[in-house]
Amino acid sequence: MGLFSGKKGLIFGVANKNSIAWGIAQALHAEGAELGFSYAGEVLKKRVEPLAESIGSRFVEECDVTSDEAIDVLFDKAAQHFGKLDFLVHSIAYAPSEELGGRFINTTRNGFRIALDVSCYSLIALAKRAQPLMTDGGAMLTMTYYGAEKVTPNYNVMGVAKAALEATVRYLAWDLGKDRIRVNAISAGPIKTLAASGVSGFRKSLSYVGQVAPMGNVDQEDVGHAAAFLLSDRAARITGEILYVDGGYNIMGAPDPSLMGGESKEE
Ligand code: NAD
């Protein structure tokens, strides 16, 4: 008997085996959850289908979250397949690559619109369709990054989208509390994935965080375990929270302790 025996949920955002959403899926599967997957486009189908199959999932459907019609179709199918839902994982973000580098002041109106639509509004759109299916209450989880709070060069408009996403988590948590639905986010440290490699200088920031964070870099498995906790009944009444899974990077005041008279980790 796992923590998720008898529980069913949908996972949005698996692109390949390196996706954070796949780390979360594996942790939920290990605890007995029944999972459904949604992927962004035809190209990803051949990657996501075998992964879903490997953990016995029979629900794998395409859905572009910028389309309300596509989301409606997806949730109609989910309602037919699962009857009810216990949890939802939103692990989706996108901004045009030219927005993820260089000067922030060059952010375009269209780049801003796309980043906020795909990376933030989509959580509201999915929550609206999932809520009526969470008839016994439920839990929703999204993925954010420290660039929402503190300037992270090159993250640019995505930092603004994540700030909006974190506020959205709090407003949804407030609104859905009456339906016994919890809404939380994990703020993960940098992890090498498809989305991350779109941010200029990502490899440098991965290596930097690895050196500065008290516990070094995190991986998909670390996030998966924390996600399983937040989505489980063990986290009953934890809602509207942003949980750092970042090796402790966010507690550091000095960018490099050696610059402040301390010792670097490796010394
Ligand atoms: P990933 O590329 O594996 O996942 C991003 C997913 O978003 C992909 O599956 C992609 O298909 C999906 N997506 C993009 N546009 C979409 C659309 N229009 N409709 C439906 N799906 C769409 O990368 P990841 O790093 O696993 O990203 C997952 C989440 O984790 C993102 O929100 C990301 O910002 C967040 N995050 C990542 C890191 C990191 O360093 N990798 C750190 C903190 C937070």
Short description:
The chain has 7 helices and 7 strands. By secondary structure, the protein is an alpha/beta fold. Nicotinamide-adenine-dinucleotide binds at residues 13-15, 19-21, 40, 44, 64-66, 91-94, 118, 143-145, 188, 190-191, 193-196.
What can you see in these coordinates?
This protein has 267 residues and is α/β, with parallel strands linked by helices. It has one domain: 3-Layer(aba) Sandwich (Rossmann fold). Helices cover 39% and strands 14% of the residues. The chain has helices at residues 20-30, 42-54, 68-82, 109-130, 157-176, 202-212, 220-231, and strands at 8-12, 34-39, 59-62, 87-90, 138-144, 181-188, 242-245. Strands 3-2-1-4-5-6-7 form a 7-stranded parallel β-sheet, with helices on both faces. Strand 5 (138-144), helix 5 (157-176) and strand 6 (181-188) form a beta-alpha-beta unit. The model has no long low-confidence stretch (mean pLDDT 96). The structure holds nicotinamide-adenine-dinucleotide. Nicotinamide-adenine-dinucleotide (NAD) binds at residues 13-15, 19-21, 40, 44, 64-66, 91-94, 118, 143-145, 188, 190-191, 193-196.
